[in-house]
Write a structure and sequence with these properties.
The complex is a heterodimer of chains A (274) and B (222). Chain A has one domain: P-loop containing nucleotide triphosphate hydrolases (Rossmann fold). In chain A, strands 6-7-8-3-9-10 form a six-stranded mixed sheet, with helices on both faces. A four-stranded antiparallel sheet of chain A has the order 2-1-4-5. The termini of chain A are far apart. Chain A has ten helices and ten strands. With 274 residues, chain A is an alpha/beta fold. By secondary structure, chain B is mainly alpha-helical. Chain B has a single domain, classed as MetI-like fold, CATH 1.10.3720.10. In chain B, 81% of the residues lie in helices and 0% in strands. Chain B is built from eight helices and no strands. Chain B is flat. The N and C termini of chain B lie far apart (49 Å). The interface between A and B is medium-sized, with 29 and 22 residues. Chain A: Pfam families: ABC_tran.
Chain lengths: 274, 222
């Protein structure tokens, strides 16, 4: 990948291969993250580490808190306690409510792909992608447009640049959602059940794209129900239940030979629903 | 209808149309523009997390909607002078109508903002927008589409309500009609004529509304 490649994730340094060195040089470090909605404690004390170029898959039953973890990482939910550290550059301690500036810095480091795409319906595909880099990051429009078109071309949607989201299929919308996230040049990509609202025959395209991005060295946290996908793409899988990380580790180990009874039950239910 | 009635119809058409063009229409446009600005502010206040801020807006809206427009006009034009505030007929009418539109349209705008899915706010925050920028670039354009039909209703009502300004001596369509009628005693003819002109104006507004709706609907599936 050349340094000018539009989706070079760690531009200008270039992506780092996930290895032991990257492990110690964590991109994302979460410690003791807590979150309650009223009397309901949805995150008990979450500990996570994602190295550069690594892919963490969060699996678990609905309501387990995995999506809340992801939303805390992007500041869409404010944690009540604990710390989030990204690349040693942004460090937030939620013991005190973060300032707007801290929150902006946190959001600046990551970009999220939503379950329901959440494209801006009143903007064309290209405008959706440009909005963040041009309006918020104030990068030169020509440069960003060229980059955006290259990204759209890559996901096979350059012919849709002037279409509105309602004219696209779910799979196409989600690919635009991914391009919108990439165009922000984040250090960390967050995927919130990216294929859960897609028709089954459209899931493959989106998963394939995410896998390609993973292979290129993007650092990611993915909330997913696609176990086979998690096993293949993730460098680490964490099973979340009741607001805790019940078990985490190598995907094959967690998904094939779980240590915890609860993980086993969950996997069994998913593999043999009836 | 006999010849003299027709003559009266045609001869009074000029002053009435002039009243519409110089009175009714500018009065409605000015009041709507000011009222909408006020309404947006009130809608945002209503949505504020600060209890007292939304409380103020709530009380204001309640008063405006809970009292007759005619009474509001009288308070401003005939009432305020007794506390030393004298305002001319035209500005009095604009103030009363603006305050009124502000109260009604605020609820429309508030509902329209709330109708935009929460995910739109989240996507806006995700790409790094501040609350204000998310509101102006992402939420309000979508809310605008939803609020065109109800706001058109508000505007059409306003056009007709401007006839109330005749009681505080503003020269507009209906006051012209009253003056001609007083001289000729052809009440039926002249008031029907006034009604006809209001109707024509509102028909024109309805077609503007549908053009606007089509324009704003270009990004929505049908």
């Amino acid at each position: 990948m050349s340094p000018t490649d539009p989706i070079d994730p760690t531009d200008p340094a270039g992506p780092t291969a996930p290895d032991a060195a990257a492990q110690s040089d964590a991109l994302l470090r979460v410690r003791g993250l807590k979150k309650s909605f009223g009397p309901n404690q949805v995150l008990q004390s979450i500990e996570l580490t994602v190295g550069r170029g690594q892919v963490l898959a969060l699996i678990g039953p609905s309501g387990s808190g995995k999506t809340t973890i992801l939303r805390c990482l992007n500041g869409l939910e404010l944690a009540d306690g604990g710390t989030i550290d990204v690349a040693g550059e942004v460090s937030l301690d939620f013991g005190t409510p973060p300032t707007k500036k801290q929150l902006a810095a946190l959001r600046d480091r990551s970009a999220m792909v939503f379950q329901h795409y959440n494209l801006f319906p009143h903007k064309t595909v290209l405008e959706n992608v440009l909005e963040g880099p041009v309006v918020v990051q104030r990068r030169p429009k020509d440069e960003v447009t060229a980059e955006a078109l290259a990204l759209l071309d890559r996901v096979g949607l350059s012919s849709k640049r002037d279409s509105y989201p309602f004219e696209l299929s779910g799979g196409q919308q989600q690919r635009v959602g991914i391009v919108r996230a990439l165009a922000l040049r984040p250090q960390l990509l967050l995927f919130d059940e990216p294929t859960s609202s897609l028709d089954p025959e459209l899931v493959g395209d989106v998963l394939r794209l995410i896998k390609e991005l993973a292979l290129e060295g993007w650092s990611m946290v993915i909330v997913t129900h696609e176990l086979e996908f998690a096993r293949e793409v993730a460098t680490e899988v964490a099973f979340v239940d009741g607001g805790r990380i019940v078990e985490h580790g190598d995907p094959k180990q967690v998904l094939r030979h779980p240590k915890e009874e609860r993980t086993r039950q969950f996997l069994h239910r998913l593999l043999f629903p009836f | 209808m006999n010849q003299s009635a027709w003559d009266l119809f045609w001869s009074s058409l000029g002053p009435m149309v002039q009243g519409a063009i110089l009175g009714t229409i500018p009065l409605a446009l000015a009041s709507f523009a000011i009222g909408l600005t006020l309404a947006l502010g009130l809608a945002l206040m209503r949505l504020s997390r600060l209890g007292w801020v939304s409380g103020i807006a709530r009380v204001y809206i309640s008063i405006v909607r809970g009292t007759p427009l005619l009474v509001q006009l009288f308070v401003i034009f005939y009432g305020l002078p007794s506390v030393g505030i004298v305002i001319d007929p035209w500005p009095s009418a604009v103030i009363a109508f603006s305050l009124n539109v502000g109260g009604y349209a605020a609820e429309v705008i508030r509902a329209a903002i709330l109708s935009v899915p929460k995910g739109q706010w989240e996507a806006a925050y995700m790409i790094g927008m501040s609350h204000r920028r998310a509101l102006t670039r992402i939420i309000l354009p979508q809310a605008a589409r939803v609020s065109v039909p109800p706001l058109s209703n508000t505007f059409i009502s306003l056009v007709k309500d401007t006839s109330l300004a005749s009681v505080i001596l503003v020269t507009e369509l209906f006051r012209e009609a009253q003056q001609v009628a007083a001289f000729s005693s052809e009440f039926m003819l002249l008031y029907l004529e006034a009604a006809l002109i209001y109707w024509v104006i509102c028909l024109a507004l309805s077609s503007v509304q549908s053009v606007l709706e089509k324009r704003l609907d270009r990004y929505v599936a049908h």
